[in-house]
Every structure is written in C-alpha cells, then in structure tokens.
Write a structure and sequence with these properties.
The complex is a heterotrimer of chains A (about 250), B (about 200) and C (about 325). Chain A has about 250 residues and is of the alpha/beta class. Chain A has helices spanning about 45-50, 75-85, 90-95, 100-110, 115-130, 145-155, 175-185, 200-205, 220-225, 230-235, 240-245; strands spanning about 5-15, 20-30, 35, 60-65, 70, 85, 160-165, 190-195, 205-210, 215-220. Chain C has 13 helices and two strands. A two-stranded antiparallel sheet of chain C has the order 1-2. In chain C, helix 1 packs across helix 4 (about 80-100) and helix 5 (about 105-130) packs antiparallel against helix 6.
Chain lengths: ~250, ~200, ~325
C-alpha cells in the first residue's frame, strides 16, 4: 500500500538563513487522520506548504516529498494541488473572491471543468459545509466561522484526496468549534490537521506528529503522546484535561 | 475625506435591478452629451433632468444623502467663478458650468449608488479592460475593508499608548501606522498568492 | 485635484483620454514583465493599501489635516509601472464608486496623478537617491519626489483647465502650482516618513526598487522619461504659440515695455526668448530657488531620519541607523 503522503528528510531555510525544517520524515497512509502538534514557530505551516509544492519557492525540495506515490516536480504540481486541499490559517487570505459562489467555484474553474459541472460541485460543496443559500453573500460580510467553512467548501469543490488543514479551529467560538469538528469528522479521505486545539487532536486524530524547532520529536498514538506529560511540557504543549476523563492513563491517579 | 459612508448601502429598487450595461450606457450618453453643450439648451437639459429626477425617485435614494454628495462640487464651482471674475477667459459662464457639472455629478452618483461593484467590473470586462487591471480592481475592492479595519485597530492601539500627543508625535504615529499597514498588505499579498497557487492558479 | 466632469471640454477629454489609455497600457505590459509572479495580489493589495492610507489623518492646523496621495511612495517601493497601475485602480474606484473626479475627466486625472505625478515623482526619486546615495538618499528622493509629483500634477491640471477655456492659464497655473507647492511639502514629508518606517522593518523593499533593477536595463527609465516628456509637451503645446502674446500682454499691463530700464534688457530678451517679460523671469527664478530649497530640505530630512538615534523599541533594529546600501 503506497503511502498517501511520504516525506523524507525534508529541510528548508528561510531567506535570512534560519533553519525552518531540519530533516523531517514521516508517512501518512490512506484514510488516516493525523494531527500535527507543536509550539508556535515550530515550522508546522512551513511543512504544510511543502505538501503541495508551494514551498520551496524555486526549484525542488531539499529532501523527498511524495504525494500518492509521485514525487513533487514542476510538471505534476497542478495535479498535486488538485489532490491536496490545503486550508490556510487565515480565511481572509484564502477567500480572495468577492462572493462565496465565485470563490468556491474558483478551484473547479481553474481545473477547466465545464460550467455545468462547476455549478454542481459548487452546490455539493456548500451543502457539505452547511452554507447552502449563501452563494451571493459578499465574502467580507461572513462571520469568522462562515469564512472558515467557505474556505473548506472551496477545497471540497476540487474533490481532493487529501485534506491538509492549518489550525482549522483557531479564532472560533465554542459553537463554531463544535460545528467544525463535526464537519471534519464527516469528511472522507485522508486528513492531516495542524492544530493547537489539543481536544480536537484527541477527538479526531488517532495518531499525532509533534514538531518542535523544525524537527519531528514524536510520532505515535495521540493518547499516548498527550499523556506523556514530560514530552508535552518539553515541547511547549500540555496534557489536556479531557484526557483525564476519556482515557485515564494507567500510571496516573 | 471620502468614507465608506459616501456609498449608500445597496437597497432593492427598480433601478437597482436594471442591468448595469443599460445604466452605464445611459450615463455615458448623458455625460458626453452634457460635455458638448456650450449653453444650457432646454432641448437637452429638460429631458435629461426629467430622466434623472425620475431615476432618483424610483431608486429611493435619500434626498439628504444625494444632496450631500452634490455639495462636494461647490468649492470647485466657486473657484472657477472667482477665476472667471478675475480673468475672463471666453469659455462658458460659470453658472452654465455649474449646472452642467451638477448634472453630470448627479448622473454618476445615481449610477454609483444603484450598481454593485461586481457588476461594474463585469461591464469593464465587456469593455475589454485588460485583465491585470480588472484583477487589481477586484482584489482592491475585496481587501480595502480588511485593511481599513486593520488601520483602525492599529490607530487605536497606538493612540492608547500616546499620552502627550504633540503634532510631531502624532505624525510619527500616523506614519508608523501607514508604514505597518503597507507591510501587512504586502505580506498578505504573498499569502493570497500562495492560496491562489494552492487552488490551481498558474 | 480630481477634476470633475464638465470642467474639461470635449477636445481635452479626448486627448487626455487617449494619452491616459496609452500610458496605462504601457504600464500594464511593463508590470507583467517586471513584477514577480505574485503581481496580481501585489497590485490589488497595494491599491487597497493606498485607498486605506489616504484616509489616515495628518493634522495640520485647526481642523484641517493632510493625507498621503502616495504615488511616489508606491513607485519607490514597487517600481513605476506598478505605481501607475495602482493609482489608476484607485482613481477608477474613486470615480465610479464615490463620484470623486468626473468620468469624462478620468483620463485627465489618471494622466495628472498617475502618469505625470507618480512617474515624475519616481524619476526625481531615482535621480536624487542616486546622487545622494544610501538609505538617506532614498528617503530624500521620496521626499523631494513626493513634492515634485504634486507640483507637476498641479501644473498638468492647470494646463488642461486652461486649454478647455474653463480658467485662464494666468490664474490657473500660479494658483494650482502655488497651492500644491505648499501641499506638496506635506506629501513629501509623509511619504518620506512612511518610506522610512517601511524600510526599517523590510530593508529588502528598498532594494526592490530603481537601483537594483534600473541598472540592469535602462528600459523603464527611458520609456517613462519619454512618456512624461511627451505628455507634458502635448499639454504645453497649445500654449507654445500663444505664450509670447500672453506674456507681451503682461508686459504691457505692467507698463514695463515703456520704461527706460527695459532698453538695456531688450536686445538680450529679444535674442533669447521673444516677448519674455521681466516679471516672468523673476517668477521663474523664484520658482527655481524655491525648488532648490525644498530639495535641500528633503536631503536634510533624509539624513536626519536615517542617522539620528531613534531608539524606538519594538521595530527591528537590524537595519536602522543608516543601513546604507
């Protein structure tokens, strides 16, 4: 079974020379939902941008990145970007069209699909995220949660095999978080979710990766990782309270 | 100074629902026709004013709002009147110019406040305005409100830390706000570019 | 300085419209060639920035406040082509959304503020920043370029108004240029302060401009210098023939021609420029002197901003205090 995402010894430096990624390696199999944890500045967003070839800006990656068995190359980037749906951290960066309909239809139109198919995908995507009826709403008039869901609809309209999400619940109120978590649970396909929301990680991701200062410091079952208090504190995280009620660790009281 | 309050929030009315192409074409005819008039010929201005009044009434734009927009013209008209009194130049008399100018301004105000910006862009596209300029306009419109909010937040934050606002200090603060606004705008532009790439743009 | 509808007559509308369309087309092509691939959002966000920045108040006196026009600033940071496109977008939105500036006058407004203003400002910026050198030179260039852009735009505006027989040239030109010579001081100062604030945090943006690119290909400067010259020539040409008449009238009005003292000057004046009267020469010299004073102020401002100890925390000090390139 070829892994859906395969990363080997990935390295990346910023313009000013700081090392952002120092040899990251991991695999994600089909259908998995994997969490990506780590403190601010650990390189999570930088790593995610490598998964659809946006980084490095010029030339090929230092290290190996394979999506669905294919190494990332300039020739197959359009295909990769259709297979990997990347949700950005700030929905305002991703919702660059004037209306919801225009924005969700952007991806399918870039794929060159006939207009009838574009409309069909638009309706399906909006229905999937619960925004049907908001087609003509101006994007800057949406609430933060609605913007997030509109961005997600824009990705779903391209029918990607893999969803890569950068902090999907940040800035949402409790109800928004609940709704988004329920939505993510319903979505099929492989998912890689970078998040600070440790409850989200516990509820949705059986497996987690922990990134700190550009290095992958842990890769394993979520509950075990999060219960390892020493590991958590060493890498700017903490053991979430939810674990005490869901999965009491044998060594904890 | 111009504020978003100088645009009326779009309502629904007969005029609002007219296709933008008609409104543009009609406005252009009125504007060009008015420019070539050298006198206040009733044959032209009579029907034009009739039409404008009817459109204004049907569009249900508040009188006060439209009047305040028309008032913007007054300093220019005054300046021309004074200049004409000082050194006459042989063109149309200042009151003729004032009437023509008000006619044109009313036309554009009615057009602007009954036509959503996205429809204006559609008309521009049909007029073969180059794509790069169209995308610039579209993105500008999309993000100007975002940037205005950021400006306000920054201004308030800095004002909160300023205790003795001398004029020089205020200028430094405002310049700093504008400078950081530009930096954020440029950073956002590169993230938007990444988001465009991520969805297949090339 | 946004000219409303009907202040320009049909022929002026036509000529300025054609010139503006041509200049914008050239700018768009250059923008496609010179800007990085991310130019679409770059231009859009810069236009949004300019629009938002024009709403920031710089209190002057009493209730009045100044605002950034911004053409020279954008040109200094993103290049001349980008500045023309960005200014055009801002003017189009102001015209069609806010009725600020007439639709028929849009060509003239784009020409004045975008082409003559922003481009003229950029050319001055390049010249001054190269002559003075370093970051201080660039800041001085933005300051002086900002001032020049206002004065040049005002002059173009006056020429258009006079050509349309809306206002006499002898009133429009001194009034517009005089007023904007003062307003321009604010524009220059604000542009310089903002440029300095930006470049302290993002020194790479200073390298993005004229110096780095202009050296490689003389193309842009040559094209734009020619464009601005051409536009000004077109605007000035209706007057070239009537200037001697107008100025002779001025000379007669002031009764100078009859004065004995004029005799000594007469041969010189007849040889150099027919019909030029002493008042005009005096005004010209005063204008030149004033311009040199502003240039001096701009250079002083550049040096002061860059080299004075500012000690403001919270902004990256990595390049502050005179990052001379």
């Amino acid at each position: 079974m070829i892994p859906v995402i395969e990363v080997q010894d990935l390295r990346y430096r910023y313009h000013d020379g700081t090392e952002a990624l120092r040899g990251v390696s991991f695999r994600v199999e089909s259908g998995e939902c994997v969490g990506l944890l780590g403190p601010n500045g650990s390189g999570k967003s930088t790593l995610l941008l490598h998964l659809n070839g946006i980084l490095p800006e010029h030339g090929s990656a230092d290290g190996l990145v394979r999506i669905l068995g294919r190494t990332l190359e300039p020739e197959n980037l359009p295909w990769v970007r259709q297979q990997v749906g990347l949700l950005f951290q700030d929905p305002d960066d991703q919702l660059f069209c004037a209306t919801v309909a225009e924005d969700v239809a952007f991806g399918p139109r870039q794929l060159g699909l006939p207009e009838a198919e574009v409309q069909a995908r638009l309706e399906r995507a909006l229905a999937a995220v619960g925004l049907s009826g908001l087609e003509d709403r101006a994007t800057h008039h949406l609430s933060h949660g609605e913007k997030r869901r509109a961005c997600l609809a824009g990705l779903l309209a391209c029918e990607p095999a893999i969803l890569v999400l950068d902090e999907p619940t940040s800035g949402l109120d409790p109800r928004g978080r609940r709704e988004l978590k329920a939505l993510l649970r319903r979505l099929p396909g492989t998912k890689l979710i970078a998040t600070h929301d440790l409850e989200l990680a516990v509820e949705l991701c059986p497996r987690c990766l922990v990134l700190d200062q550009g290095r992958l410091v842990a890769d394993g079952p979520t509950v075990d990782l999060l219960n390892d208090e020493a590991l958590m504190l060493a890498h700017g995280l903490e053991r979430p309270h939810i674990l005490q009620h869901l999965h009491p660790h044998p060594n904890h009281v | 100074m111009l504020l978003p309050g100088h645009i009326h929030r779009p309502r629904s009315s007969g005029i609002h629902r007219w296709p933008a192409e008609w409104k543009f074409a009609g406005a252009l005819v009125i504007l060009l026709g008015t420019v070539v008039q050298s006198e206040l010929t009733p044959l032209w201005f009579g029907p034009v004013w009739g039409l404008l009044m009817w459109v204004w009434w049907r569009s249900r734009l508040p009188v006060g709002f439209v009047m305040s927009r028309l008032l913007w013209l007054s300093p220019f008209v005054l300046a021309v009147a004074l200049a004409g009194a000082w050194r006459p130049v042989g063109g149309p008399a200042w009151w003729v110019l004032a009437c023509k100018a008000f006619t044109s301004l009313l036309t554009v105000v009615l057009l602007a406040n009954t036509t959503p910006f996205s429809e204006m862009l559609r008309v521009f596209r049909r007029l073969r305005v180059p794509g790069l300029l169209l995308s610039t306009l579209a993105l500008m419109h999309r993000y100007v409100f975002v940037l205005l909010e950021e400006t306000e937040r920054m201004r308030r934050a800095r004002a909160g830390r300023t205790f003795r606002p001398g004029r020089s200090r205020l200028w430094q603060i405002q310049a700093s706000v504008v400078g950081h606004l530009l930096i954020r705008a440029l950073a956002r532009a590169s993230r938007i570019y990444q988001a465009m790439l991520a969805r297949g743009w090339s | 300085m946004h000219i409303p509808d009907n202040f320009l007559d049909a022929k002026t509308v036509g000529v300025t419209g054609v010139l503006a369309a041509g200049a914008v087309a050239v700018a768009l092509r250059q923008a496609r060639q010179q800007l990085p691939p991310a130019r679409v959002p770059l231009l859009g966000l810069s236009a949004a920035f300019l629009f938002a920045a024009q709403m920031v108040n710089f209190p002057v006196w009493g209730g009045t406040s100044g605002h950034l026009a911004g053409g020279t600033l954008v040109a200094a940071l993103l290049g001349p082509a980008a500045a023309v496109v960005v200014m055009t977008a801002v003017l189009v939105v102001q015209c069609f959304l806010f009725a600020d500036g007439g639709v028929t006058a849009l060509g003239a407004n784009i020409l004045n503020l975008g082409v003559v203003g922003a481009m003229g400002g950029w050319l001055v910026f390049r010249a001054v920043s190269r002559w003075v050198g370093g970051l201080a030179g660039r800041v001085a260039g933005v300051a002086f370029g900002g001032w020049c852009s206002m004065v040049l735009a005002a002059a173009a505006c006056a020429l258009e108004l006079a050509w349309s027989r809306t206002v006499a040239l002898s009133v429009a030109l001194p009034a517009m240029v005089g007023i904007h010579a003062v307003i321009g001081l604010g524009e220059g100062l604000i542009s310089a302060l903002v440029y300095h604030a930006v470049v302290r945090v993002r020194p790479d943006l200073a390298g993005l401009t004229a110096d780095g690119r202009g050296d490689a290909s003389l193309g842009p400067v040559w094209v734009w210098g020619l464009t601005v010259t051409f536009v000004l020539a077109v605007l000035v040409s209706p007057w070239a023939s009537s200037w001697p008449d107008g100025l002779e009238r001025v000379a007669e009005t002031y009764g100078f021609a009859e004065r004995a003292g004029a005799v000594a000057w007469a041969p010189l004046m007849d040889y150099e420029v027919p019909g030029v009267g002493w008042p005009v020469v005096a005004v010209g010299l005063a204008g030149l002197l004033g311009t040199l004073v502003v240039l001096g102020l701009a250079i002083w401002l550049g040096r002061w901003l860059v080299h004075s100890p500012r000690g403001k925390p919270g902004i990256s000090e990595g390049s502050a205090g005179g990052g001379s390139a």
